[in-house]
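stage 2 :: seqdesign
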C-alpha cells in the first residue's frame, strides 16, 4: 500500500467544463487541456507545439497540487 497524501485544497464542488473554459476566455497566454470526453476517452491538447513545454506545465501544476500551493482564489 502506498503513502496516502491528504490534499488540503479548498473546493467548491464540481463545475461544468464549458463554464471553466469560458471563465478564462481571453486571459491565458498558454493552456494545457486535459480531460475526459462523453465517451470516456482521454483528451489532451495544448496551445504550444513544444512537447517539453507542455510537460513542464503539467509537472509544474502537478507540483502545485501536491504541495497545496494554490491560494483560495485560484480554485
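stage 2 :: out
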Amino acid at each position: 500500500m502506498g503513502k496516502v497524501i491528504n490534499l488540503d485544497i479548498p473546493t467548491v464542488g464540481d463545475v461544468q467544463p464549458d463554464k471553466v473554459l469560458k471563465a478564462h476566455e481571453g486571459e491565458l497566454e498558454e493552456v494545457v487541456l486535459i480531460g475526459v470526453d462523453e465517451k470516456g476517452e482521454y483528451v489532451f491538447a495544448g496551445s504550444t507545439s513544444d512537447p517539453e513545454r507542455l510537460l513542464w506545465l503539467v509537472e509544474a501544476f502537478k507540483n502545485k497540487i501536491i504541495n497545496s500551493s494554490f491560494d483560495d482564489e485560484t480554485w
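stage 3 :: structure notes
- The mean pLDDT is 84.
- DSSP finds two helices and two strands in the chain.
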